[in-house]
Amino acid sequence: MDYETLGNVVLLAIVTLISVVQNGFFAHKLEHESKTHNGWSFQRTGTLAFERVYTANQNCVDAYPTFLVTLWSAGLLCSQVPAAFAGLMYLVVRQKYFVGYLGERTQRTVNRKPKTEEHSRLKRSRVLAAGSASQTLLGPGVTEGARQWRSTRGYIFGKRIILFLFLMSLAGILNYFLILLFGSDFENYMKTIANTISPLLLIP
Amino acid sequence: MDYETLGNVVLLAIVTLISVVQNGFFAHKLEHESKTHNGWSFQRTGTLAFERVYTANQNCVDAYPTFLVTLWSAGLLCSQVPAAFAGLMYLVVRQKYFVGYLGERTQRTVNRKPKTEEHSRLKRSRVLAAGSASQTLLGPGVTEGARQWRSTRGYIFGKRIILFLFLMSLAGILNYFLILLFGSDFENYMKTIANTISPLLLIP
Amino acid sequence: MDYETLGNVVLLAIVTLISVVQNGFFAHKLEHESKTHNGWSFQRTGTLAFERVYTANQNCVDAYPTFLVTLWSAGLLCSQVPAAFAGLMYLVVRQKYFVGYLGERTQRTVNRKPKTEEHSRLKRSRVLAAGSASQTLLGPGVTEGARQWRSTRGYIFGKRIILFLFLMSLAGILNYFLILLFGSDFENYMKTIANTISPLLLIP
């Protein structure tokens, strides 16, 4: 690619490469857990600990193509900087989500007896309450992650960020048809709005 | 992106954004089912109903990167309009497939006893027969979905559409080498052929 | 796309289309296995044989978006030819990995009794030893596949190739910032280095 084209996508490319590193990290964790707990078996089932890492990884993997598509659509059709920023936020949320799952796992494996299930829930509530209390200490990213993880119970996370990227893409496509129909280009307004809204993603 | 480049991909981008909305819908259904039936557990297993939604979602997710790749290859290497049309058809098939799975699920959970299994199969055959009968009422999309769902039993669907997109990509690459070797450009013939064939995807 | 742009991505597009064919092959194998062993059930669980094919397919599917992203990043940001070559190598490794899983499966289903587990392991070691012995006969690809399959036990394979593609992408991005900051373009050096290193991927 020539220099100017590259300048239009370099931030998106950096975010994408960070996400690749993160995927590698998740896969490494999964492999480690599998080696530790499952011995020589190739199965997808195993100890509760392995099940959890597997599920966390699976949820991240399932959402990955959707994330990539919205990231690049938003970046190319609308504006690069806010899209790359939102993408970075998503990766932070994903990291917190995965680590939250692992933490939950560790706690569960300690109280693995069914009769301590109720106790474990109480304990978890306390952990989450502590998470809310530590919000001011650790910044919004942590709380975002914890909140997503709690509210979605593991199937969807980072909904708001994906929605933001999706709306940016939609704005880019609408702008194309406005140019086509009325000859008026709202690209600058659009970029200004996207830049203004993107910091709001930091609010937990 | 500048205006001309955007014009070459805008239909593909629209189809892609619709697929993102659909992914969100599938994930929402899965989350809802998980909340309703599994209580607080994070597991991938659960009631039969949850298993079905999970499997349906997994099959859609697994095929998603392949679909995106063939869609954009066909659109960029060959011709945009037929590729976007085929992509839209694929999304319709996918929707019918997912909804078919959910319907199958509901029916199964009603007759959950093993001894009514045989009865359930008979009932299902009748449902499928009814589906064939309602073909003229509901249009080809529905039958396509039902047929795919029945014939593949959940692992591959929309084969014909993916094949069409794949052949379009292949034609685009062959055309590149024809230009390289003989200096003759068959792009217009290729586009005409793709445009002519694409309505055939509507035939159930 | 115009002719020059197409020339910059045609090799990447070919590798991508081959990977699509391979995905179809994997999905076909999974469907076949499901039909043979599971009868009419839609479940993700089943016989050990089905579980294995499912797991092998799942591992390939999970890594697929990451592979595509690094392939195209490396090809667009750095150099096309070594990236396409590495991508092709990855596809070979993936094929060997999948076939290795199937072979393992067949062998396991023969000795399915738990008491012959230990015996099965010994047999497997012998198979792997035979694999090493046949290295000179079958070329490096086979050994690479067997080695990856053995060492990672099914969760990550082709690490080295993904790493190579990732480093190429990283070099491309670093080069962009070097041009931005110092005005010196190292693109030619970079391409030469990538071309020189890529044959090393053939070493098992």
TrEMBL record, chains A, B, C:
It is found in: Nucleus membrane; Endoplasmic reticulum membrane. One of its GO terms (biological process) is leukotriene biosynthetic process. InterPro entries: 5_LipOase_AP, FLAP/GST2/LTC4S_CS, MAPEG, MAPEG-like_dom_sf, Membr-assoc_MAPEG. It is a multi-pass membrane protein. The keyword Nucleotide-binding does not apply. Keywords: Endoplasmic reticulum, Leukotriene biosynthesis, Membrane, Nucleus, Transmembrane, Transmembrane helix. GO terms for molecular function: enzyme activator activity; glutathione peroxidase activity; glutathione transferase activity; leukotriene-C4 synthase activity. Its main location: nucleus. The chain crosses the membrane at residues 6-26, 161-182. GO terms for cellular component: endoplasmic reticulum membrane; nuclear membrane. Belongs to the MAPEG family. The C-terminal part after residue 140 is mostly disordered. Homotrimer. Interacts with LTC4S and ALOX5. Required for leukotriene biosynthesis by ALOX5 (5-lipoxygenase). Anchors ALOX5 to the membrane. Binds arachidonic acid, and could play an essential role in the transfer of arachidonic acid to ALOX5. Binds to MK-886, a compound that blocks the biosynthesis of leukotrienes. This is Arachidonate 5-lipoxygenase-activating protein. It comes from Neophocaena asiaeorientalis asiaeorientalis.
